[in-house]
Fold:
Amino acid sequence: MRTFRNLLVTGGAGFIGSNFIRHVFEKTDFAGRIVNYDALTYAGNAESLADVAATFGGRYVFLHADIRDAAAVREALDRYEIDAIVHFAAESHVDRSIVAPDDFVQTNIVGTFNLLQAARERGAALSLFHHVSTDEVFGSLGPTGFFSETTPYAPHSPYSASKASSDHLVRAFHDTYGLPVTITNCSNNYGPFQVPEKLIPLMVLNALEGRPLPVYGEGLNVRDWLHVEDHCTAIWTVMARAESGSTYCVGGRNERTNIDVVTRICALVDRLAPPLPSGAPRESLITHVADRLGHDRRYAIDCSKLEGDFGWTQAYTAENGFEQTVRWYLENPKWVDSVRTGDYRRWIERNYAKRG
Ligand SMILES: NC(=O)c1ccc[n+]([C@@H]2O[C@H](COP(=O)([O-])OP(=O)(O)OC[C@H]3O[C@@H](n4cnc5c(N)ncnc54)[C@H](O)[C@@H]3O)[C@@H](O)[C@H]2O)c1
Structure:
């Protein structure tokens, strides 16, 4: 069982990273310090951790810094005597990678390389580099079958290709230099604090406000939805217990078509929020739009290795997970507003508005 003193969490102001930091402080016996290393791109929001900063101030440090800056990475690792790294920081949105792939190469590939180099320079002082990756590196499935730890890589989008590249670098640093690493590849996450351009928060907020609910194609693409809290327990378990060099797939055992997810969200918003002025059910807002370029048909994860090795299992079901998430977005308009103004809004206006 590994224990850690000074954890560097990259991308800790993003969706999964902020949930992870809160989880570690509030739900584990971790007694050390967390340094949140984040460049605060459109996807990063320091407000997501305002409560953590207030409660755990003495053990929580926020560093506004970029993983593309190799010297800054090295300096952070030395200054805070980092003994473990959990690497979330990434450009993470497939649609953005289609419009502007450059940042994906710089952050996801070069940024990961900078971290690995600096980690290696810490020598025996570094006990673990945990890399957070995606099931999208495996490509697309037909109607049957599952991705597992032995599935060959076949990424399609610039996003998944950049993540695949970073996974390979992490394994190479383990195999070549003996760097202690673990990797998790997970399915689509959902839950609180997700930037409202991703499917679930986008649909909740558009449904609430009576705006169109854009669904790609027929909405028949299938994703396996994993609650972010379940993802956090999986990462922490792997970090503490998995053998160095090993990979684990993390899934929700919760496969759904996009149209099924959107329909469920409409029903939840109808039940939990005031009705639309027209009185129409929110489902009537669904608008089918041209499909995403190269849209992968189906992702599904076999997480039996994680379940078998450590007894890990999901705490959330589709029913309680989706309802908890919809309630959270309805109850946190201040957080939603803080994300929708600022860089996030400006990027959307620059890059999507012109597409019509
Ligand atoms: N969200 C999902 O469903 C999902 C699924 C599988 C894997 N993942 C992986 O999990 C990780 C976290 O995903 P997320 O959804 O929380 O992403 P996110 O986009 O919400 O957050 C990314 C964070 O990284 C920071 N960041 C971006 N570029 C940076 C840079 N150059 N230097 C420092 N910080 C930088 C951003 O400011 C932001 O806080 C990513 O590596 C992603 O590939 C996510």
Summary: The pocket of nicotinamide-adenine-dinucleotide is lined by residues 10-11, 13-17, 38-41, 43-44, 66-68, 88-92, 107, 111, 132, 134, 163, 186, 188-189, 195 (CB under 6 Å).
